[in-house]
Amino acid sequence: MRWLVGWSSTAAGAAGIGSAGATGYDGETLHPVGSQLLWGDPDPLWAVGDWRPDEVRIVTADARTRIAVLGTCGASDEELRLGLFTARGGALRHLTAWPGSYTAVVQAGRRITVCGDLAGARPVFHTPWAGGTAYATAALPLADLIEANLDFGHLAALLAAPDVPAALHDSTPYDGVLRVPPGHALILRAGSREIAGYEPVASLAVAAPPADPDSAVDAVRDALVDAVRARLAAPRHVPGADIDPGPVPGMGPAERRAARGTPVPGIGADLSGGPASGTLALLAAGLPGMPGTVLGHGTGAGERLLAVTFNDLAVGGRESEVERAGTLAANPRLHHVVVTGDEETLPYADLDGPLTDEPGPSLVTAVRHRTRLAAGSADHLTGYGARQVLDAHPARLADLLMDRQRRHLVRPVAALAKADGSVMVPARVYAAARRLARTPYRTGLESLAERLLQRRFEEPEGAVGASLAALTWARPGPAARWLTGEALAEVSIRLQGATHRSGVGPGQRPGDFRARGALARAAADVRVLEQAAEIRFQRLHAPFLDNQVVRACRTLPEALRVQPGARASILRTVLKGAGVADLPPGWGAPSHVPAAAAARVGLRSSVDSVLTLFDTPLLAEAGLVEARVVRKALRAAAHGDPLPLDGLADLVSLELWLRRLLARRGTCWTGTPARARAVPAGITPRRGALASGT
Prior knowledge:
Layout: E1 3-8, E2 22-23, E3 29-32, E4 35-39, E5 45-48, E6 56-62, E7 65-73, H1 77-88, E8 100-108, E9 111-115, E10 125-129, E11 132-136, H2 139-146, H3 152-160, H4 165-168, E12 178-179, E13 184-189, E14 192-197, H5 213-233, H6 253-260, E15 264-270, H7 275-286, E16 305-312, H8 319-328, E17 334-341, H9 366-373, E18 377-381, H10 386-390, H11 396-402, H12 410-420, H13 425-437, H14 441-454, H15 462-470, H16 485-499, H17 510-532, E19 539-541, H18 547-554, H19 558-561, H20 566-577, H21 595-605, H22 607-613, H23 618-621, H24 627-638, H25 645-663, E20 669-670
Parallel strand pairs: 15-16, 15-18, 16-17, 18-19
Antiparallel strand pairs: 1-5, 1-11, 2-3, 3-20, 4-5, 6-7, 7-8, 8-9, 9-13, 10-11, 10-12, 13-14
Helix pairs in contact: 3-16, 5-18, 5-20, 7-20, 11-13, 11-17, 12-13, 14-16, 21-24
GO biological process, one term: asparagine biosynthetic process
Region (Disordered): 238-269
Protein name: Asparagine synthase
């Protein structure tokens, strides 16, 4: 893991802050473990972890005016300097408009500004500390700093309503550590804090001006090309070059690298056969220059881009995708590697792994991704986030009705009717979209709170059922059915409290609002995946989650999004505009074997080890579930009962995360007593624990 951490005190020297650290509770000097100081004095900032030299950039105007940009940023030093001067005057949005994925921190006197991203893949957290405010790009260091206990209300909401921003609000798994919402910045002035949005939000009362589809797709192409180019322009890295023990009899450089578990030098990409990863791989291979691996380091690929395809032999059905990937990899600028998976790479097969900053369903599939990424490059492009930024959430049908664009509902509704085979589908979908368009946001939250109290968890069947269920402001999560009544009541109270907050309305249409929530959840899970499946010296890149790509995708007309096959059509146009027109037949076709098939096979194969987790689960000690109920559901799902597997993945991953958190030793800070770490007292068996999270 890599993160930034710093703080702003109410007055210079109030917390004993200096370049060497800060004064803790017992007068000890405090600073993060494994950190490099970026700047000190009253409001210090550290970079913690294995940051590369080119990932940390600081531009200084004077002793009290400077900007730090950490991550992959396509801006030049002069652009950073101009951005610093503009930010000194209070403007923020331009700090998030450079290509790449990064975190920008600006210091102007005693004012500190930390910008989060639009998707939520690079979040910012904060907490009151030592008379001021501490902030970081990871929640665990702040939880260690204040010895935070678990926020049981947040954990309940994470299971009961993970897609509902009002349920989670700004909380984290750690009580007292708060999250800055996506699209917002944290502004600190001498210890006081303010959360400011930097992105304009479409009005709910006035229809957005009609967007030209061609120019919108061109903007997506330009943003994606800039995002890929920002990665290609960064220095190439040779992982572990300084620790290579030298020649070994019978082993070449590639074998020595594989034995050390380090990735291939240079840049590579996923090539699953799907449209998102294929687009990025072809863009990276087609841009001018030498796109791929570093020549002369034993890869046998020269400067070709390393393309990695995962072929799951344990669960068939993706043969056509692998074949399409092989056809794409015939490009002479690509070096194709196929990684095969067996029973040992199925979900739930290996539940050991590192502690992540937050829980996420990717914890149960981490070994599957780690197997693929181990064959990847030092900088590896992935297609994560493409579905969320390009596809149309079903609730966008209500947006079209609100904007009086009923004619654009014909093709998506006809596709649903064809899939269902019922002539009643158009009327049902239209009625649900019309109902949502006329339902206030407050009413939607109140309806969800009532559903949780009454334990109404009807599971939709088929594509039509899923679309109808999604035509709401908010709906229960797949794991909600297995929570205790107390946990559901806690989440219901959180939702009812949200309706009384000022400015409860989302300020945007229901489809756009639901799509932003889905993107935030997907980005959070990508962040968890990056930490859980981390390969030493490797960087995962998700260009579809970059700010500029997200912005470009948000300009796509809803009428274009809702059409069947819209994502593949948009990306095909993007590639054509970039000079790539020769795509294999069937490119972009949806997979007929969903991830649920692998999850079911994996659960069936590993049900005994998963059941062992729930012999005495920490979730039951926290009052969130009853152990026997979860064990019964796991056995039923393993035997093929139609239960929501993603809900079981949420339960298992949260139990895993709690166990890893409580089993850790040490803290993120030096100079602190042993007690200074998150959840110092563990979980005590009590039934009223959830009240602390409100």
